[in-house]
Protein 1
Amino acid sequence: MTPSRPVAMLDQARELREVLEVLAAALGRGDTAAVLAAEPALQAVVAAAGRAGAPGPDERAATAAELHRARTALARCRVLGAASAELTAVTQDVLGGAGAYSRHGAGQPRAPRGRDLLARV
């Protein structure tokens, strides 16, 4: 078996950013199929992360910029994922269903929120 050629870190950072941007766009649209379709690509990028060679002096600034953009895309994914989870939980509350399972596993239904608000309109 011949060892594979190391991938440039700049290329990996760019690929990571692109996958995270696709995932964030899918989350923003609420497109479940696209979110699930992005998972294998994200897994592949993360699995290959350890095989990157160190960036050369001329690639360091570009690599840092790509990694910054990737972090921004990841933050967007986190916010959109949390908003989606909250929307799902609120919808379940309104429909009278308890969230019996979440990414934290099976558990108690969450405490009601916002039901004691008294306001005049």
Note: Confidence is low (pLDDT under 50) at residues 1-5.
Protein 2
Amino acid sequence: MKQKSYVIAALICHVLAYPCVCFGTYLWDTHTPITATLTVEDTDLCWYATHSVQAEDKDKRSYTHSGDPSPCYPDGVFDDTLTYEWSKSVGSNPQTGTFTSPTSGEGVSTVDWTAPPCTGTVKIKVQVDDKPDPMTGSHLADGSTRNDPAVEEEDFANVTLPSGCNDAGAHDNSVHWPDPLPAPTFNYTAGWGVTHTDAFKATYDLEMAYDNCTWVPQITNVQTNCTIEVHTSPFAGHVDVTNPNDIPCANALDAINDLWDADLHDGGSGPPRNVYWSQAAIVAHEEKHRTEWIDAYTDALDAAIATIEADCTIIDCSDYWTKTCQDAESTREDAIATLMNQAFTDAETALAPQVEWGPSEAAAVVYDALIDSIEDRCGITPKKTR
């Protein structure tokens, strides 16, 4: 009966073109190397991605005949069990993020990953190896193996900015005043003149821009204004002295006394102006207020902006309010507004000790020129001097 089985086996070998007589000995070989195709996902900073690898390892088992390790005829091709080892390293990104699922073992063909709080590339690597599985068969031929060399695949995941966010860079954070400044208006009746500042606290645009794993405040489009109102002329009971020749010499002393400001540093009370006054002098007074305000407010805003832009928000993937530029802005905008508003108060404080000195001196230039002309024309001595 056994002899009949060998005869049948020999016939099968002949049909299959194997010049051998087949017995129950098995030869395992690795057949094809391990193949692996890695796919990495790009994502926003602090956001999630899943990296995956498609891999396989095909091993072959063949029958052999006694004393000859060469294959007699194939018995089949079998999938070997694979193991995976994931790792990461820096690319252009200074950080590598965090794996949030198992990174090694059988069947770990995917890995979950949270991107770092910085932009740039991170190298993702996977090593694929076979277990290998047992070699089955009643008798194994010498040289049988299912052990393939491990293979490694790597690629770069690119970490990008969230939608609507931009890199920090050059920007115009200077204070803009109208050019030209609004001309004075002449319809004021509540006093001699006024320089309006309260209605023109600076407006600005705020953007939290990305710089080296942080959000940096960038202030742009800083706009403000300052307007002047001066008393209307003429008005009842008063004479606006525009030309000293208009003053009769009989009234010269009255005009001189009305236009003379005896103390330029008394807080801005100005000359008496009981009857005679000068609209041009009031304009000079208010224009000086405006010039000094522009200088003081610009300086205060520049200082506030420098402080704001030096205070960055570190991106922390565990802190929801720092993950996007929009969230970072929402947490900073009130404090930034407070600093910008404080600049207004700081400018007022800087001017307060001598706020009327410069304007009174500017007005006195106009008043004193009028007085000097009246004195010369009417021969009045001694002349007023400072």
Note: Residues 175-378 form one domain.
Protein 3
Amino acid sequence: MSLMALITAATGAIITAETGDRLLAIFTRVQTSLVLAAIGIFGLGVGGLIGLVAVASAA
């Protein structure tokens, strides 16, 4: 495992934990889980679109 992947995963985990704690002050546990899941899915979608654009522009 590369050092960059380890740093990225650790940073993501810390940010998610901090965000979850702050959201729990406003929303219920279920709503907080749904918000964090939606953000994760949105990020994967954006990353996929960026990947498609990069592949298409390289061709």
Note: The longest helix spans residues 29-58.
Protein 4
Amino acid sequence: MSQPKQTPVAVPFVVARAIAAVISAIIFGVVLCVIGFLLCRGLIDTTLGVIPSYSVGFAFAVLLSFVPLFAGQGARVGLLDGYTQQRFYLPERRFFGDPPDPAAAVSSNNRPSNPWRVGAVASVLLGVPAAALAFTLAPRLWPDGLSLGSFVPRLAALGAVLAGTTSLLCTGALFRDEARLSASQRRFEGTVGAYRVLHHVLPQGLSNLVINAWVAVPLFPHPVSTPGATVPIALVIGDAFVSAVVISIAVWVGVLPHVDLDKRSGVIAAQPTAAPSRGRQLGLLFAVSVALAVCVYGVSALTGIQGLSFWPFLLWRAFAFGGYAAWVAQRSATWALAARP
């Protein structure tokens, strides 16, 4: 005798949405704590022992402007992932995998949004105003600057609030409409190569280009206006290795669950190719990181370059690490799309 279909143990959509917002706030609070602690050491005025007010505003503005980009993309991917695994149901008690919903025929132009596009819109609507406010108000609120112990928790708290707000706003009515789409409506209209570029390579490459350009400011060991100041080549080599390792892990961790979700929800089909194990993938990325640092050393030894001034250093970080992030995204997406591990 056939068993009756059991309803999955799941929570209402409103509860899942609130949980996602809390998780997003916690993650970005912790991440900004770490970033703030690492970067603010380059912003501290060694004479006064504090971060000047203009540097506080600059740091807040740049970092907060990117929070909605990643929080919006992460909220869409994370919540839809929970829906495909039937961890929550929509208000009409609909689960992923139920028969197609007729109402979906008139929703969201019958196509889901690229999660990175959702994050980009959130960055414009939330991140840019938040950055402008931070840049304008920081010198007025803290005219004497902030110490390390004051800068980090304030940055983390603002980032957590902004990330939680972004998560809530990016998972509302439009998300519900897109969640109700059938597999055929979700399917990406284009080649696998176009999917990799639009959903992974371009977003990761462009965002890392801008972020790594900004990171050059606190990493530069002298005031930017100092005549003849340079970054020693040893620091450039060490920065190349550390940054490549961090980017490899961050992009790899971000791409794999995104691709897995897209395969499971019908956006893209698994490809009839094989991929190395997860451990070997990380090993390869680590080896490439080492090779990048060795190449920088080799070029400096052949050319006799002893250091980089500010603008060459900034442009090097922007284009080298933006390009590297794009390559890691391309490789990671190709591995994740493979049907066989």
Note: Residues 1-5 have pLDDT under 50 and may be disordered.
